[in-house]
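agent> Task received from the user: take the single chain below, predict its 3D structure, and emit structure tokens. No templates, no multimer pairing.
agent> Plan: (1) validate residues, (2) run structure prediction, (3) serialize to tokens, (4) report one or two observations.
agent> Step 1 OK, no nonstandard residues flagged.
tool_call: predict_structure(input=
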Amino acid sequence: MRNRLLRLSIMLLVAVLVTGCETINPYTGETQTSKATKGALIGAAAGAVVGLASGDNAVERRQHALIGAGIGALAGAGIGYYMDVQEAKLRQKMAGTGVSVTRIGDNITLNMPGNITFETASSNLNGDFYRVLNGVGEVLNEYDQTVIEIAGHTDSRGSDEYNLGLSDRRADEVGDYLEGQGVMPLRIITVGLGEDMPVANNSTAEGRLLNRRVELTLVPVTG
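)
tool_result: status=success, residues=223
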């Protein structure tokens, strides 16, 4: 039931975003296609972004907690600008790594596929994944006004129960590593989704590799 509701929420989100195609850039005064629309279309086409699996309420609680802890809230046009700069830094850091960076509205999602994250049936980080997470950690520490949702996913091999536990461990492993890089634990939410949100066909090795992934979604801290 929870997963059906998540899928419905994502579909509704994309539908809403696509209705607002043109915006005015507050810094240049130019009319432009909104990043929300671009991100929605990219996400829908590539299946790379599953949305906030932990739910809006969980994120809002973290936002309020961070504000209470002294992390300032972003507001107005400053939100988009803050995420623009952070997005550019992440794209620079992730270039050539195989990690995709997708923008939907003011949220940024990093899709980290299985060839650089974890071996099959394992929650141990691949060697190449350390360099990727080091780059992510640098940007997260520089731009600390975000909540970070880490969602773990698996392919369909194994039981539902096993895959759910494995995805939880994978998300926790990434969260623990980022904490070790200095990222404030209060900013991090981890969630395991098991095999329930594939982005490719599980009947092929290539598809299973894409499904065995971790997604980091960055949400700005707002009042």
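agent> Step 4: summary for the user.
Strands lie at 22-24, 31-33, 100-104, 107-112, 146-152, 188-192, 214-220.
agent> Done.
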